[in-house]
Design goal:
Helix content is about 35%, strand content about 20%. The chain is an alpha/beta fold.
Protein backbone atom coordinates (compact mmCIF):
# COMPACT_ATOMS: atom_id res chain seq x y z
CA UNK A 1 0.00 0.00 0.00
CA UNK A 2 1.44 3.37 -1.06
CA UNK A 3 1.64 6.46 1.16
CA UNK A 4 -1.33 8.01 -0.67
CA UNK A 5 -3.40 4.86 -0.17
CA UNK A 6 -2.57 4.77 3.52
CA UNK A 7 -3.64 8.41 3.93
CA UNK A 8 -6.93 7.68 2.12
CA UNK A 9 -7.49 4.58 4.26
CA UNK A 10 -6.99 6.58 7.48
CA UNK A 11 -9.44 9.18 6.20
CA UNK A 12 -12.03 6.46 5.61
CA UNK A 13 -11.52 5.10 9.13
CA UNK A 14 -12.02 8.51 10.75
CA UNK A 15 -15.20 9.11 8.73
CA UNK A 16 -16.46 5.72 9.94
CA UNK A 17 -16.32 7.00 13.53
CA UNK A 18 -19.48 8.99 12.87
CA UNK A 19 -18.10 12.30 14.21
CA UNK A 20 -20.19 15.27 13.09
CA UNK A 21 -18.18 17.33 10.53
CA UNK A 22 -19.33 20.61 12.14
CA UNK A 23 -18.18 19.65 15.63
CA UNK A 24 -14.79 20.67 17.02
CA UNK A 25 -13.55 17.09 16.81
CA UNK A 26 -14.84 16.73 13.24
CA UNK A 27 -13.08 19.91 12.10
CA UNK A 28 -9.83 18.74 13.72
CA UNK A 29 -9.95 15.33 12.01
CA UNK A 30 -10.78 16.93 8.64
CA UNK A 31 -7.78 19.25 8.94
CA UNK A 32 -5.47 16.37 9.89
CA UNK A 33 -6.72 14.27 6.98
CA UNK A 34 -6.11 17.14 4.54
CA UNK A 35 -2.59 17.61 5.89
CA UNK A 36 -1.82 13.88 5.60
CA UNK A 37 -3.16 13.78 2.04
CA UNK A 38 -1.04 16.77 0.95
CA UNK A 39 2.09 15.32 2.57
CA UNK A 40 1.51 11.93 0.94
CA UNK A 41 1.20 13.45 -2.52
CA UNK A 42 4.33 15.59 -2.03
CA UNK A 43 6.26 12.45 -1.05
CA UNK A 44 4.94 10.63 -4.12
CA UNK A 45 6.07 13.55 -6.32
CA UNK A 46 9.59 13.42 -4.83
CA UNK A 47 9.76 9.66 -5.40
CA UNK A 48 8.71 10.06 -9.02
CA UNK A 49 11.29 12.81 -9.61
CA UNK A 50 14.02 10.75 -7.95
CA UNK A 51 13.21 7.73 -10.12
CA UNK A 52 13.49 9.82 -13.29
CA UNK A 53 16.90 11.23 -12.30
CA UNK A 54 18.08 7.81 -11.18
CA UNK A 55 17.31 6.32 -14.58
CA UNK A 56 19.14 9.17 -16.34
CA UNK A 57 22.21 8.65 -14.15
CA UNK A 58 22.21 4.94 -14.94
CA UNK A 59 22.30 5.75 -18.67
CA UNK A 60 25.21 8.16 -18.23
CA UNK A 61 27.14 5.56 -16.21
CA UNK A 62 26.62 3.01 -18.99
CA UNK A 63 27.99 5.46 -21.55
CA UNK A 64 31.05 6.21 -19.41
CA UNK A 65 31.75 2.51 -18.98
CA UNK A 66 31.61 2.12 -22.73
CA UNK A 67 34.07 5.00 -23.22
CA UNK A 68 36.38 3.47 -20.64
CA UNK A 69 36.44 0.21 -22.59
CA UNK A 70 37.33 2.06 -25.78
CA UNK A 71 40.26 3.91 -24.22
CA UNK A 72 41.63 0.72 -22.73
CA UNK A 73 41.76 -0.89 -26.18
CA UNK A 74 43.98 1.87 -27.66
CA UNK A 75 47.78 1.17 -28.04
CA UNK A 76 49.78 4.39 -27.65
CA UNK A 77 53.63 4.45 -28.11
CA UNK A 78 55.62 4.77 -24.93
CA UNK A 79 57.78 7.87 -24.26
CA UNK A 80 61.35 7.62 -25.66
CA UNK A 81 60.54 5.12 -28.41
CA UNK A 82 62.18 6.12 -31.73
CA UNK A 83 61.54 4.84 -35.16
CA UNK A 84 64.55 3.57 -37.12
CA UNK A 85 63.81 5.28 -40.34
CA UNK A 86 61.51 7.70 -42.05
CA UNK A 87 59.74 4.92 -43.99
CA UNK A 88 58.44 3.43 -40.82
CA UNK A 89 57.29 6.94 -39.70
CA UNK A 90 55.39 7.40 -42.92
CA UNK A 91 53.77 3.97 -42.68
CA UNK A 92 52.59 4.61 -39.07
CA UNK A 93 51.49 8.24 -39.61
CA UNK A 94 47.95 7.44 -40.88
CA UNK A 95 47.02 5.03 -38.06
CA UNK A 96 48.30 7.45 -35.45
CA UNK A 97 46.19 10.28 -36.86
CA UNK A 98 43.19 7.99 -36.71
CA UNK A 99 43.95 7.08 -33.09
CA UNK A 100 44.36 10.77 -32.26
CA UNK A 101 40.92 11.59 -33.68
CA UNK A 102 39.42 8.76 -31.64
CA UNK A 103 41.08 10.07 -28.48
CA UNK A 104 39.81 13.59 -29.12
CA UNK A 105 36.31 12.26 -29.77
CA UNK A 106 36.37 10.24 -26.56
CA UNK A 107 37.66 13.23 -24.59
CA UNK A 108 34.89 15.44 -25.96
CA UNK A 109 32.27 12.82 -25.11
CA UNK A 110 33.69 12.56 -21.61
CA UNK A 111 33.43 16.33 -21.13
CA UNK A 112 29.80 16.27 -22.31
CA UNK A 113 29.06 13.36 -19.98
CA UNK A 114 30.57 15.18 -17.00
CA UNK A 115 28.51 18.26 -17.84
CA UNK A 116 25.33 16.14 -17.97
CA UNK A 117 26.15 14.58 -14.60
CA UNK A 118 26.63 18.02 -13.04
CA UNK A 119 23.35 19.24 -14.47
CA UNK A 120 21.49 16.15 -13.28
CA UNK A 121 22.88 16.37 -9.75
CA UNK A 122 22.02 20.04 -9.58
CA UNK A 123 18.47 19.18 -10.60
CA UNK A 124 18.27 16.42 -7.97
CA UNK A 125 19.54 18.59 -5.15
CA UNK A 126 17.31 21.41 -6.29
CA UNK A 127 14.27 19.11 -5.94
CA UNK A 128 15.32 17.78 -2.55
CA UNK A 129 15.99 21.27 -1.22
CA UNK A 130 12.62 22.57 -2.32
CA UNK A 131 13.67 24.00 -5.67
CA UNK A 132 11.03 24.66 -8.27
CA UNK A 133 10.01 21.75 -10.46
CA UNK A 134 9.12 22.36 -14.04
CA UNK A 135 6.84 19.34 -14.33
CA UNK A 136 3.45 20.00 -15.79
CA UNK A 137 0.64 20.36 -13.30
CA UNK A 138 -2.71 18.60 -13.66
CA UNK A 139 -5.97 19.42 -11.89
CA UNK A 140 -7.72 16.45 -10.28
CA UNK A 141 -11.22 16.01 -11.80
CA UNK A 142 -14.46 15.25 -9.93
CA UNK A 143 -15.14 11.49 -9.98
CA UNK A 144 -17.87 11.02 -7.34
CA UNK A 145 -20.93 9.27 -8.75
CA UNK A 146 -19.01 7.69 -11.65
CA UNK A 147 -18.13 4.04 -12.01
CA UNK A 148 -14.44 3.24 -12.42
CA UNK A 149 -15.00 2.45 -16.11
CA UNK A 150 -16.76 5.78 -16.64
CA UNK A 151 -13.97 7.62 -14.82
CA UNK A 152 -11.28 5.99 -16.96
CA UNK A 153 -13.06 7.17 -20.12
CA UNK A 154 -13.46 10.73 -18.86
CA UNK A 155 -11.52 13.24 -20.99
CA UNK A 156 -9.93 14.74 -17.88
CA UNK A 157 -8.67 11.32 -16.77
CA UNK A 158 -7.84 9.29 -19.86
CA UNK A 159 -4.11 9.31 -20.55
CA UNK A 160 -3.45 11.57 -17.56
CA UNK A 161 -4.52 9.88 -14.34
CA UNK A 162 -4.65 6.28 -13.12
CA UNK A 163 -7.73 5.26 -11.10
CA UNK A 164 -6.95 2.83 -8.27
CA UNK A 165 -9.67 1.28 -6.10
CA UNK A 166 -8.48 0.83 -2.51
CA UNK A 167 -11.73 -0.18 -0.81
CA UNK A 168 -15.51 -0.21 -0.78
CA UNK A 169 -18.22 0.90 1.65
CA UNK A 170 -22.00 0.94 1.90
CA UNK A 171 -23.67 4.20 0.87
CA UNK A 172 -27.28 5.31 0.76
CA UNK A 173 -26.35 8.24 -1.49
CA UNK A 174 -24.52 6.39 -4.29
CA UNK A 175 -25.55 3.26 -6.16
CA UNK A 176 -23.44 0.10 -6.07
CA UNK A 177 -20.30 0.46 -8.18
CA UNK A 178 -20.17 4.25 -8.06
CA UNK A 179 -17.22 6.16 -6.60
CA UNK A 180 -18.09 7.65 -3.19
CA UNK A 181 -14.69 9.03 -2.18
CA UNK A 182 -11.51 10.06 -3.98
CA UNK A 183 -8.02 11.11 -2.94
CA UNK A 184 -6.74 13.61 -3.90
CA UNK A 185 -9.99 15.56 -3.94
CA UNK A 186 -11.31 17.45 -6.95
CA UNK A 187 -9.53 20.68 -7.80
CA UNK A 188 -6.15 19.64 -6.36
CA UNK A 189 -3.08 20.26 -8.54
CA UNK A 190 -0.65 17.33 -8.90
CA UNK A 191 2.66 16.93 -10.73
CA UNK A 192 4.65 13.69 -10.61
CA UNK A 193 2.15 11.33 -9.02
CA UNK A 194 -1.05 11.03 -11.03
CA UNK A 195 -2.84 8.21 -9.22
CA UNK A 196 -6.35 8.85 -7.85
CA UNK A 197 -7.30 6.45 -5.05
CA UNK A 198 -11.03 5.79 -4.73
CA UNK A 199 -13.59 4.03 -2.54
CA UNK A 200 -16.53 2.40 -4.34
CA UNK A 201 -20.11 2.06 -3.05
CA UNK A 202 -21.58 -1.36 -2.33
CA UNK A 203 -25.06 0.20 -2.35
CA UNK A 204 -27.29 1.16 0.55
CA UNK A 205 -26.56 -0.68 3.77
CA UNK A 206 -29.19 -3.29 4.63
CA UNK A 207 -29.82 -5.58 7.58
CA UNK A 208 -32.39 -8.25 8.40
CA UNK A 209 -35.02 -7.35 10.98
CA UNK A 210 -34.12 -9.30 14.16
CA UNK A 211 -36.61 -11.36 16.14
CA UNK A 212 -37.50 -9.15 19.11
CA UNK A 213 -40.62 -10.96 20.35
CA UNK A 214 -40.61 -11.35 24.17
CA UNK A 215 -37.66 -8.94 24.44
CA UNK A 216 -37.78 -6.18 27.03
CA UNK A 217 -38.75 -2.83 25.46
CA UNK A 218 -35.40 -1.05 26.09
CA UNK A 219 -33.28 -4.02 25.02
CA UNK A 220 -35.26 -4.32 21.78
CA UNK A 221 -34.73 -0.64 20.97
CA UNK A 222 -31.00 -0.98 21.70
CA UNK A 223 -30.66 -3.93 19.31
CA UNK A 224 -32.26 -1.87 16.55
CA UNK A 225 -29.94 1.10 17.18
CA UNK A 226 -26.92 -1.21 17.00
CA UNK A 227 -27.83 -2.05 13.38
CA UNK A 228 -26.42 1.41 12.54
CA UNK A 229 -29.18 2.19 10.04
CA UNK A 230 -30.44 5.38 11.68
CA UNK A 231 -33.86 3.75 12.13
CA UNK A 232 -36.93 5.54 13.51
CA UNK A 233 -38.13 3.42 16.44
CA UNK A 234 -41.75 3.73 17.65
CA UNK A 235 -42.37 1.88 20.93
CA UNK A 236 -45.57 3.66 21.93
CA UNK A 237 -47.97 0.94 20.75
CA UNK A 238 -49.31 -1.19 23.62
CA UNK A 239 -51.73 -4.09 23.82
CA UNK A 240 -52.98 -6.52 26.45
CA UNK A 241 -51.51 -10.00 26.33
CA UNK A 242 -52.27 -13.15 28.28
CA UNK A 243 -48.86 -14.70 27.40
CA UNK A 244 -46.35 -11.81 27.21
CA UNK A 245 -45.25 -10.02 30.38
CA UNK A 246 -46.02 -6.32 30.64
CA UNK A 247 -43.21 -4.20 29.16
CA UNK A 248 -42.07 -6.90 26.71
CA UNK A 249 -42.50 -6.95 22.92
CA UNK A 250 -45.53 -8.80 21.54
CA UNK A 251 -44.68 -8.28 17.85
CA UNK A 252 -42.83 -5.92 15.52
CA UNK A 253 -43.71 -4.01 12.38
CA UNK A 254 -42.12 -5.11 10.06
CA UNK A 255 -41.76 -8.74 11.07
CA UNK A 256 -38.50 -10.56 11.78
CA UNK A 257 -36.48 -11.38 8.65
CA UNK A 258 -37.65 -8.34 6.66
CA UNK A 259 -34.88 -6.35 4.94
CA UNK A 260 -34.24 -3.02 6.65
CA UNK A 261 -32.65 -0.01 4.97
CA UNK A 262 -31.25 3.21 6.36
CA UNK A 263 -33.96 5.55 7.65
CA UNK A 264 -36.73 2.92 7.86
CA UNK A 265 -39.34 3.04 10.65
CA UNK A 266 -39.77 0.10 13.03
CA UNK A 267 -42.74 -0.18 15.41
CA UNK A 268 -42.65 -2.23 18.60
CA UNK A 269 -45.98 -3.46 19.98
CA UNK A 270 -45.45 -3.77 23.74
CA UNK A 271 -47.52 -5.82 26.20
CA UNK A 272 -49.61 -4.17 28.94
CA UNK A 273 -50.00 -7.53 30.64
CA UNK A 274 -53.27 -9.41 31.06
CA UNK A 275 -56.41 -7.41 30.52
CA UNK A 276 -58.31 -6.82 33.76
CA UNK A 277 -61.86 -8.17 33.71
CA UNK A 278 -64.91 -6.25 34.87
CA UNK A 279 -66.29 -7.52 38.20
CA UNK A 280 -69.84 -6.84 39.56
CA UNK A 281 -69.55 -6.12 43.26
CA UNK A 282 -71.95 -8.13 45.45
CA UNK A 283 -73.49 -7.28 48.83
CA UNK A 284 -71.03 -8.04 51.63
CA UNK A 285 -72.89 -6.34 54.50
CA UNK A 286 -74.32 -8.66 57.16
CA UNK A 287 -71.64 -11.32 56.58
CA UNK A 288 -68.68 -12.11 58.78
CA UNK A 289 -65.49 -10.28 57.73
CA UNK A 290 -63.42 -13.46 57.36
CA UNK A 291 -65.94 -14.93 54.96
CA UNK A 292 -66.07 -11.60 53.09
CA UNK A 293 -62.25 -11.55 52.72
CA UNK A 294 -62.30 -14.94 50.99
CA UNK A 295 -65.16 -13.98 48.69
CA UNK A 296 -63.62 -10.66 47.64
CA UNK A 297 -60.23 -12.22 46.93
CA UNK A 298 -61.72 -15.00 44.82
CA UNK A 299 -63.63 -12.41 42.77
CA UNK A 300 -60.42 -10.51 41.99
CA UNK A 301 -60.85 -7.64 44.46
CA UNK A 302 -58.18 -6.48 46.87
CA UNK A 303 -59.32 -6.10 50.51
CA UNK A 304 -58.01 -2.82 51.94
CA UNK A 305 -58.48 -1.28 55.39
CA UNK A 306 -61.02 -2.83 57.75
CA UNK A 307 -62.23 -0.46 60.51
CA UNK A 308 -64.79 -1.09 63.26
CA UNK A 309 -67.49 0.67 65.27
CA UNK A 310 -69.90 -0.29 68.01
CA UNK A 311 -73.08 -1.99 66.87
CA UNK A 312 -75.60 -4.44 68.20
CA UNK A 313 -74.56 -6.83 65.45
CA UNK A 314 -72.18 -9.64 66.33
CA UNK A 315 -68.54 -8.73 66.44
CA UNK A 316 -66.93 -8.95 62.95
CA UNK A 317 -70.14 -8.46 61.05
CA UNK A 318 -69.67 -6.23 57.98
CA UNK A 319 -71.68 -3.04 58.46
CA UNK A 320 -70.42 -0.98 55.47
CA UNK A 321 -68.56 -1.54 52.19
CA UNK A 322 -66.71 1.17 50.18
CA UNK A 323 -68.12 0.04 46.82
CA UNK A 324 -71.87 -0.16 46.46
CA UNK A 325 -73.37 -3.50 45.43
CA UNK A 326 -73.99 -4.12 41.70
CA UNK A 327 -71.15 -1.74 40.72
CA UNK A 328 -68.84 -3.00 37.94
CA UNK A 329 -65.10 -2.58 38.71
CA UNK A 330 -61.83 -3.90 37.24
CA UNK A 331 -59.86 -6.76 38.67
CA UNK A 332 -57.48 -5.61 41.36
CA UNK A 333 -59.74 -2.83 42.62
CA UNK A 334 -59.35 -2.14 46.37
CA UNK A 335 -62.43 -2.40 48.58
CA UNK A 336 -62.59 -1.43 52.29
CA UNK A 337 -65.02 -2.44 55.05
CA UNK A 338 -66.43 -1.31 58.41
CA UNK A 339 -67.27 -4.12 60.82
CA UNK A 340 -69.11 -4.33 64.19
CA UNK A 341 -67.11 -4.23 67.38
CA UNK A 342 -70.15 -5.29 69.42
CA UNK A 343 -72.67 -3.31 71.60
CA UNK A 344 -71.52 -0.11 73.29
CA UNK A 345 -71.22 -0.35 77.17
CA UNK A 346 -71.92 2.78 79.40
CA UNK A 347 -68.87 4.06 81.25
CA UNK A 348 -69.05 3.40 85.00
CA UNK A 349 -72.28 1.35 84.73
CA UNK A 350 -72.72 -2.30 85.37
CA UNK A 351 -74.87 -4.83 83.78
CA UNK A 352 -77.81 -6.07 85.99
CA UNK A 353 -77.08 -9.39 87.55
CA UNK A 354 -79.17 -12.39 86.84
CA UNK A 355 -81.80 -12.80 89.67
CA UNK A 356 -80.11 -10.13 91.79
CA UNK A 357 -81.18 -6.84 93.19
CA UNK A 358 -79.87 -3.39 92.74
CA UNK A 359 -77.42 -2.31 95.36
CA UNK A 360 -78.51 0.62 97.58
Amino acid sequence: MTVVEKAAYLKGLTEGLGIAPDSKEGKLWNALNELLSDMAHEIEDLHACYDEHDEALDEVCDELNYLEELTCDLDFPEDGDDYDDEDEDDEDDAPRKTDLRRVLTIAGAAVVAVALIVLLWRAIFSDLLGGEQKQKEYVVPHLLGMTIDEANEDENVKGIFTIEQIGERASSEYAAGQIIEQSPERGKSVKGNRVISVFVSTGAKTEKMPNLVNSERRNAALQLKNLDLDLTIDDTLEEYSETITAGYVIRTLPEAGTTLRAGDTVSLVVSKGSEKKSIPVITFTGSDIEIVRQQATQMGLVVGDVSSRADVSPIGTVLEQSIAPNTDVKEGTVITFVVSSGPDVDDGGEEPGIGGEELP
